[in-house]
């Protein structure tokens, strides 16, 4: 956070930041003070269409900043869809009926030219979760696994997001691991995302009245339900594959489990640890990595998407 404060001093601003998290159902914003703390937050229901999103984001930024608006040095936005972080352009935000939108520069224009950075929502959540879990010590590598509608990872090295050559770093959801499994909308077969994303677990273990599937699946397994046991084994196996792919690629000091599935809490951590320990019992190399000791659940009581959007760059 000191880096951005220094940049702000150069720009002659007092160094407040605003982070905006665009979701399929709501848009949330936080105002972060020069000391790095969240000083205000605000949210509105999301409306579909590019013009509505631009209006809502701009008015939310002004609203959350209030009389500090003139001191806002930088606005960061996290959004679903395809994001070009270098240009601020977004595309294919299906939930909000956006085909293409020059989000960064159009929001900047509506806010009097304040610099705006746009990143994808998983990367923003990765930064936010790391900030909340690690405080000021962002040294080393932190991997954030988002088990949400889709499955993707965000990787930070010394607090800096790794976007990769084409912006696709961390897209582990579309690594095909099992040719005998499900077709994936991406065109391949057996992608990790077809088994262990939040949406896939909901498909494999449908629940009544909107209850989240993962806690229900774990509870049914513990009651001795054979079908639940079969489904959970498939899901936790895919989660284990995802963890190993990410962890053995970047050897992070922390592996953060995020996305909607993380709200399952302790029981999710237990079934993941069971999976890891089963694998470790057959593999001294894996046991030596002790990945279980590096696992954390993303904070559920902080708006990590909006906080991370403010700091992502
Ligand atoms: Zn795929």
Automatic annotation (TrEMBL):
Domain of life: Bacteria
Family: Belongs to the ROK (NagC/XylR) family.
Pfam family of the protein (one): ROK
Name the UniProt record assigns to this protein: ROK family protein
